[in-house]
Specification:
YdcZ; membrane; Transporter family-2 protein; about 75% helix; transmembrane helix; transmembrane; single chain
Length: about 350
């Protein structure tokens, strides 16, 4: 028997058809990824500033000399590795991912160089211990950011990061310059007191190289995260970085200095948690924005957070140069952020 035809009912005037969703009931479109991840990049920079404060205080409590800074870095990385290893034990997908990463490297499905990103953090700490006492922390950070910005342009332009080739534009160069300028403005008074000598310029090569390695590390982390996810990538960074810092501490113990024992204040051991947050945030956001944008926003987050720390805990209010540095850093973030928006829109 033939199936009777289904009657066609004409829609009531004003009633939306199935192909035309009712604007009053249709769900709102989610915000684009480039917009959602902007505060995540600023937050990552804020965590770097907090970690620097914590690790600096921990170094002073541990003793003197290079061995104290090396041990503080190892405590920071080691505590972060402990937290992430507990996560891998309690969270089955992360644990399986960590185990799978080791197998993939042994079978050469993932190249060895892709898991060495954590050495970038270890090299930064080592260069800080070797160069910062002579250069001063402000000049050290200035050189680090300069190396980071230049290498970030190269990594994105060559397509070494996870989001492909990003052309070199005036907006991107301007954003990188503003990031370096913000650090220079924030420490203008301290920089003027640094005597420029030949040995100082040679020593400045260490933070410059550390900044370049940091940008390469972010690109490597983004590519590894495409295979194993951000949490496994973060665990791998702390694992590799901790191994590197064990060797660095062994060398540092041969240098002058002394250790006084571990302090008892719990807040001095929060550097590892700050590092976890920063590495995870940069691993997630670099796949959306590229290395340069993450770096410029990170610098802005550091400058703003340092100003807020000075405002809340310092003996006096931050001066005009501090707020000028905040404005310059945010301007740099706005320049590269708007350029990234146009890129996504295109």
């Amino acid at each position: 028997m033939a199936t009777p035809p289904v009657p066609v009912v004409a829609p009531t005037p004003g009633t939306p058809t199935p192909s035309t969703p009712d604007p009053t009931t249709a769900p709102a479109r989610p915000a684009p990824r480039w917009l959602v991840t902007l505060p995540l990049m600023l937050g990552g920079g804020a965590l770097i500033a907090l970690q620097s404060q914590v690790n600096g205080a921990l170094t002073g409590r541990l003793g003197t000399g290079l061995r104290a800074s090396a041990l503080a870095a190892l405590v920071s990385f080691g505590s972060g590795l402990l937290v992430l290893s507990l996560l891998a034990l309690l969270h089955r997908p992360t644990g399986r991912g960590v185990a799978a990463l080791g197998g993939a490297v042994r079978r050469r499905r993932i190249p060895l160089w892709l898991v060495l990103g954590g050495l970038g953090g270890a090299f930064f700490v080592a260069s800080q211990g070797l160069a910062a006492p002579t250069l001063g922390i402000t000049f050290f950070i200035l050189c680090f950011v300069a190396g980071q910005a230049v290498m970030a342009l190269v990594v994105d332009q060559r397509g070494w990061g996870p989001n492909g080739v990003t052309a070199l534009t005036r907006s991107r160069v301007a954003g990188a310059v503003l990031a370096v300028l913000a650090v220079a403005v924030s420490g203008a008074g301290l920089l003027s007191a640094v005597p420029v000598t030949g040995s100082l310029l040679v020593l400045a090569a260490l933070p410059l190289l550390a900044g370049a390695v940091n940008s390469a590390q972010q690109g490597v982390n983004g590519r590894l995260a495409a295979h194993v996810g951000p949490w496994v990538t973060t665990w791998n960074n702390f694992w590799v970085g901790t191994l590197g810092l064990v060797l660095f501490l062994a060398v540092a113990l041969l240098r002058p200095g002394h250790l006084t024992g571990l302090p008892t204040e719990p807040w001095l051991y929060l550097g590892g948690l700050c590092g976890i947050g920063f590495i995870w945030a940069s691993t997630v956001t670099v796949r959306v924005h590229g290395v340069l944008v993450v770096g410029v926003f990170s610098v802005a987050g550091q400058v703003v957070t340092a100003a807020l720390i000075g405002l809340l805990t310092g003996p006096g209010r931050p001066g005009p140069t501090t707020w000028a540095a905040v404005a310059v850093s945010l301007a740099g973030a706005a320049v590269v952020g708007l350029a990234q928006r146009r890129r996504h829109a295109g």
